[in-house]
Amino acid sequence: MAILALVACGGSSGGGGTTTALNIAFLPKAVNNPYFDVAASGGQEAATALSGQFKQVGPSDATGAAQIPFIQTLTQQNVSAIVVSADDPDAIAPALKQAMAKGIKVVGYDSSPAKDARNVFINQADSKGIGVVQVQMICDEIPGCAGEIAVLSATSTATNQNAWIQAMKDELASNSKYSGLKLVKVAYGNDDPQVSTTEAQALLTSYPNLKGIISPTTVGISAAAQVLKQTGKAGKVQLTGLGTPNLMRAFVKDGTCKEFALWNVKDLGYLAYYTAALLVQGKIKGNPGEKFTAGRLGDYTIDPNGVVLLGPPFVFKADNIDQLNF
Ligand code: RAM
What we know:
Layout: H1 2-7, E1 23-27, H2 34-49, E2 53-56, H3 64-76, E3 81-84, H4 93-101, E4 105-109, E5 120-123, H5 127-141, E6 147-153, H6 159-174, E7 181-188, H7 193-206, E8 210-215, H8 218-230, E9 238-241, H9 245-253, E10 260-262, H10 265-280, E11 291-293, E12 299-301, E13 307-309, E14 314-316
Parallel strand pairs: 1-2, 1-3, 3-4, 4-5, 5-13, 6-7, 6-8, 8-9
Antiparallel strand pairs: 10-14, 11-12
Helix pairs in contact: 2-10, 3-4, 5-6, 7-8
Bound molecules: alpha-L-rhamnopyranose (RAM).
Alpha-L-rhamnopyranose binds at residues 29, 33, 35, 85, 110-111, 154, 160, 191, 217-219, 242.
């Protein structure tokens, strides 16, 4: 069902004209990450539907420090909203608060800034669910669901990855189904292909008995897949996590990675832009309990933590990966 919904989502706008200027900027964790280009395509689609402007700016290194000058420049430019994926929730909070003090709306997407440094956060899927599905997948792939596993994450400060890793640890500790799995290391590839490659290689040499790697980042999982293939460890060390179908297709087909999860990244960008636009137009305030309609995606409610949930994650495997192109 989820896959059908995903495939069917190329539809038209539900938007309309507006009298308030929509000058909305996306600030991803880093600009050289294809994941954020897919999200940007959704932001652009919503901008077109609402007759607004869209631009994307951001650093090439995925760090909070590198995001700060972009926030300051967007604030000076007096954009109407900043839509940001936080590399570090606290490091960027003061700059975002300065933007908010000027009347600029701030929407987090993908990875939330500190709660008091954004109006709303658009969460791609329930954080606990994203952690749990990754533990379930690695268990399904490792024979007997027993042995050493490691996590290859993005940056150590990333809000989203850290929430998912905590959910994985909680699940491993509390669900007896996973008592045979031992998490031996959380490594950080910084969402940089080269660092992720080096860290994946280090996991294999430091833990010769490793049975599986969970990489909850699209950059990390594709780097780890390359490493497993090149070192002849594909199929011996299992790999799962969060990836895009286009980066992972070849590795799913050759068995290096049997399954991984993700959400509709384009819809995430669409919903983030749409929510930012409604805030700019004063149609929503960002208060818990507020309901709104986001064009072709339909109805949403802001939860008590100021979070809007896009929907459930879904699992990509050999039998569905060719239906998806992003
Ligand atoms: C990477 C980024 C992003 C995350 C995805 C799954 O592209 O770290 O924040 O949501 O992976």
